[in-house]
Amino acid sequence: MTLNLTLKVWRQDGPRDAGRFETYEANAVSEDISFLELLDVVNEDLVAQNREPIAFDHDCREGICGMCGVMINGQPHGPLRGTTTCQLHLRHFKDGDTVVVEPWRAAAFPIIRDLVVNRTAFDRIVMAGGYVTAPTGAAQDANNIPVPKANADLAMDAAACIGCGACVAACPNGAAQLFTSAKVAHLGLLPQGQPERWSRVNAMVQRMEEHFGSCTNHRECEAACPKEISIDFIARLNRDYLKAQFKDRRQLLRATDVASEE
Amino acid sequence: MTALDTAPATTTDLDSHVPPGPIAEKWDVHRFETRLVAPQNRRRFEVIVIGTGLAGGSAAATLGEMGFNVKVFCFQDSPRRAHSIAAQGGINAAKNYKNDGDSVYRLFYDTVKGGDYRSREANVYRLAQISTEIIDQCTAQGVPFARDYGGLLDNRSFGGAQVARTFYARGQTGQQLLLGAYQALMRQVELGSVALYARHEMLELVVKDGRAVGVVVRDLVTGAVTSHSAHAVVLASGGYGNVFFLSTNAKGSNVTASWRAHRKGAYFANPCYTQIHPTCIPVSGEHQSKLTLMSESLRNDGRIWVPTNRDDRRSPNDIPPEDRDYYLERRYPAFANLVPRDVASRAAKRMVDDGFGVGELKNGVYLDFKEAISRLGRGVIEQRYGNLFDMYRDIAGEDPYRVPMRIYPAVHYTMGGLWVDYNLMSNLPGLFVIGEANFSDHGANRLGASALMQGLADGYFVLPATIAGYLAGQLGQPPTPTSAPEFKDAEDSVRERVNSLLGVRGSHSVDWFHRQLGKTLWEKCGMARNADGLKEAAREVGDLRQRFWQDVRVLGENETLNQSLEKAGRVADFLELAELLCQDALHREESCGGHFREEYQTPDGEALRDDERFAYVAAWEFKGDGAAERLHQEPLDFEYVHLAQRSYK
Q: Is B556 helix (H, G, I), strand (E, B) or coil?
C-alpha cells in the first residue's frame, strides 16, 4: 500500500533567522515506512533538486535514544499514543493527508535549525541533582539491600523517560514537571536514593524553574509522552518538594551554623 | 587492488603486555605494579574522552571523580543519547545468585569459547572478574534492575550459556545502565571536573613524536574547527556496523574517530569480525533506513521454526506441528534456541536461502510464543517482553501475542576495532581505546549481554587503573600547546577535507553512496564470504570510493548545522574501512565466529577454524593512501581454555 502526502515543514536557517513553512509533496510512499523515513525520502528529493535538505534530529530510530521528535499536526510525536516519531509508521495516515511538521515549541528549547532544537536545559536539571552520589568502586554487594519488587517496578516506570522533550512541547506553559518528576521518583523510590532525597528534589526543582514554565495540571504532558509516564509522578514530586522544605531545612540550618562559626 | 592479490606484508612484533603469573592473579598483581598518580597531582593532568556511551560515559565520570581534568565529546545533543542506550536484554555477571554453577572461571570459559577462541585469555578473565563489581556499582547508582518477590536481583539466561547470569531492567537494560553513567557524568560536569562538548565530532587525532597528544573537533552547530590538547586521549566511539548501511546501529554511529586514529598510526585489529544478530525484524522495503533488533532474550521463551514445505502458504497458526521444522532444536538439542548468535544467524540464512523463508518477501523465520503463552500465561510474557512486543507491533504491524514474529539476522556489533594491549592502550602511546571501539575481549563472536559488561568494565574499572600508569610517567610535563605545528596541520587537514566535500557538487546524495556500499558489503562480505566475492567487493568499494569524491552532492555550507556534511565525512571513512574489511576477511582463510568463509566449513556446515595458521590477532597498519596495509600479528596463546571445535549440540 502506498500513500500520497502533502507536507508543510517549518524551515529556519538558524537560531536568529525568521522561519517559514515550505510545502513538499511525497508521492507513492509505502505505508510501512516510518515518519523519519518519510523525511529521508523528501530530503533525497530535495537534494536531487539542489535544495538543502530538512535538518532534523534522530539517532537510534528504535524509540529509545530520545533524540528525535517533531510536532506532527500540532501533536508531539504525532497522533499515535505512546510512540516516538521514529516509531510512527505511515499506515497511521490516510492517502491525501496534509501533515504539518514543526519543531518542539518551547522557550527553553531554542531552535538551532529547521526541526532541530537545543534541549541542554534538560541536562542542566540532571546536573543539579538527578543522580545518586556513588563513587566508582565504593559499592557493596548488590543483593545486600533488598528492594521490594513493587518499588523497583515503579522506579523503572519512572526511569523509562527518554528525555525527548515531548512533555515540554505539549505543555501550554512549557513546563518540565513530568521530566523532572520522573527522575525524582525513580531515585526517590529506591533505598540507594534516600540519603540525597530531599536535597535532590530541592536542587532539581530550583534548576527546572530557571528554564521552564510552571505546571498547571493540564495533563498534556502525559498524553504526549512516548513512554506513557504517569502524572502521578508529578504529584509525588510536589509532595517530596513540600516535605523537603522541612526535611532539608535541618541541613540548611546546619550550613548556616557552620557559616556563622567561621 | 594489487593488495588483495598478494599476501600482505607481515610482522609478529605486537606485545600485548599481559602480565605473567596465574591468570586469576594477573589483574591484582598488575594493578599493584602499575604506577599511581597521587590525588593532589591528578588535577595537573588533562584527559580527553571521545564518546559518551557506556564506556566513555563511565570512564569520563570516574576519571573526573578521581580528580583528573576531563574533556568529553559526543556528536549527539546530550551524552544520554549514545547508542548503548538501545541495548535491550541485559548484562552478564558471574554472581552465581541462582546457584546454578556459575563462577568467574565459567564466564571466562564461556566467553572465550563463544568468541571461537580468537580472544586474549588474560583480558577475558579480567572481564569476568570485574563483572560482579559492575552490578554492585550500578545498583548503588540506582539502576532499577529487575527483582524477584523477595526484593533480590533477578536473572535470565542468554545465548551461549547454560546458566542464568544475565541481569536486566525490563527490555531497557542499556538505557538504565547508560543513564546511571550519564547521571554520574553530569554530576562531574556540575562540579567542574569534566567539561562537556555535545554536538562536537572528533575529526583528527593529533600525534607528536609518536604519542597521542590531542584531537581536532568540529562544532556541528557552528562549523568551528578547534584543537584540544591532553596528556592522554581515550576513544570510546563505538563500533563500525554502519559500514553495512542497514544495521541495528543508530544512524549516527560511525567509525570516523577510530579511522582517523588508524590513519595516524593506530593499528586496526580484526575488522572482519562483524556480528550478525539473529533476531531482528526483516527488511520491508527499499526506503528502510535501519534494522530493528529484538532482544535475544526472546529466544528464552520463543521457539524458532519454518514450514517443512517451501510453498506452504497457510497462516502460521494453521500450520500443524508435524509440518513445522524447529531447526535449531533439531540440529542443536543441547542449546536449542539458545545457541550463540553466529550459529543462530547462519542457520536462519540457510533456511531462507534454501527457500523456506516466511513472510511476503520470504525473508524471515518464525519466532513463536504460542506455547510459552499457553504455559506461562500472557501476563508473564507481557512482563518479560512487553516493550519488545509493542515495538514489533509498531514496526511490523502484526500482533506477536497472536501471530508468530518474523525475524531475520542483521548486522549488529563489531568485534574488531583498534588494537589495544592489556592496558587498553593502542600501539600509539597515550591513545587508549575502550568499549566496542577496541577489539579486545569478544574474539570472533560476542555473546549476548557481554557488550554492556565490557563497556562498563573498561570505563569504570580497567581504564581508570591503567591510564594512571601512563600518566605517572608524564608528571611535571604540561600538555602540548595547541599552537604546536602538529595541531595546526591537523586543523588544516580537517578544513581542507570539509571544503573538498562541499566542493564536489556532484549528482548523488551521501545516502545513495552509503546504500551502494552497504549492498556490496552485505552481499559479499556479510554472513557468508568467499575469496572471489571478497575480491569483487574490494574492487567495487574502491571504484565507489573514487566515484564518491568525484560525484557526491553535499549542499549547504560549513558554518551552520549541516547534517549532509557530517554524513559525508563519515561515509568517506566507511568507504576506506570497507576495503580493509574485505582484505582482512580475504586473508583469514578459515571460518571463526562471525567470520564465515564458505570454503572453510565442516561437512555439516559449521565454522571450521584453522588454529595452526590463524590463532592470532590481525592488526593492520595504515601505510598511506593507495598503499597496502601492513599486517602485524599478535599470536594468541591458550593456557587455560582447551581449543576445540565449538559444539552446541
A: coil
**Residue B306 counted as domain residue:** yes
Q: How confident is the model at residue B1 (pLDDT cuts 50, 70, 90)?
A: very low
> Each residue of A185-244: pLDDT tens digit?
999 999 999 999 999 999 999 999 999 999 999 999 999 999 999 999 999 999 999 999
Q: Find the domain containing B299 and state its range.
A: 278-411
User: Is B163 a domain residue?
Assistant: no
Is B282 within the bounds of a domain?
yes
Round to whole Å and give the CA distance between B108 and B122: 9
Q: What cell numbers appear for A80 in the block? A: 499515535
Domain CATH number, residue B368: 3.90.700.10
For residue A116, report the phi and psi dihedrals to the nearest 5 degrees. Answer: -95, 130
Which ranges in chain A belong to alpha helices (H)? 35-48, 120-129, 149-159, 166-170, 177-188, 197-211, 220-224, 232-247, 249-261
Q: What is the pLDDT of residues A11-51, one digit of tens each?
A: 999 999 999 999 999 999 999 999 999 999 999 999 999 99
The total number of residues shown for chain B amounts to: 649
Q: Tell me the torsion sign for CA atoms B303, B529, B14, B427.
A: negative
**Helix or strand or coil: residue B233?**
strand
pLDDT at A256: 58
The complex's ipTM works out to 0.96
Q: How far is A20 from chain B (nearest CA, A)?
A: 18
| DSSP secondary structure string for all residues of B303-356 | EEEEESSTT--S-GGGS-GGGEE-HHHHH-TTTGGGS-HHHHHHHHHHHHHTT-
Band (B76; pLDDT cuts 50, 70, 90): very high
Q: Which of B544, B553, B541 is nearest to B580 (CA)?
A: B541
The distance from CA B362 to its chain's CA centroid, rounded to whole angstroms, is: 29
Q: Which residues of A touch B169 (CB under 8 A)?
A: 156, 159
Q: Which residues of B touch A50 (CB under 8 A)?
A: 553, 555
**What is the domain count for chain B?**
1
Q: DSSP labels for B113-152?
A: HHTTT-S-HHHHHHHHHHHHHHHHHHHHTT----B-TTSS
Tell me how far apart the alpha carbons of residues B112 and B120 are, in angstroms, rounded to a whole number.
8
Please name which of B32, B35, B37 lies closest in space to residue B21, comparing C-alpha atoms.
B32
**What is the pairing mode between strands B405-414 and B232-235?**
unpaired
The burial class, CB within 10 Å (0-12 / 13-18 / 19+), for A82 is middle
Tell me if B97 is assigned to some domain: no
Active site residue B341: yes
The domains of chain A, with CATH numbers, are 2-113 (3.10.20.30), 119-254 (1.10.1060.10)
In 3D space, the residue among B449, B576, B437 whose CA is nearest the CA of residue B82 turns out to be B437
CA distance, residue B187 to nearest chain A CA (Å): 5
Please tell me which of the candidates A63, A146, A156 has its beta carbon nearest to residue B151: A146
Q: Cell for B378?
A: 500472557
Q: Which residues of A touch B136 (CB under 8 A)?
A: 139-142
C-alpha cell at B374: 499457553
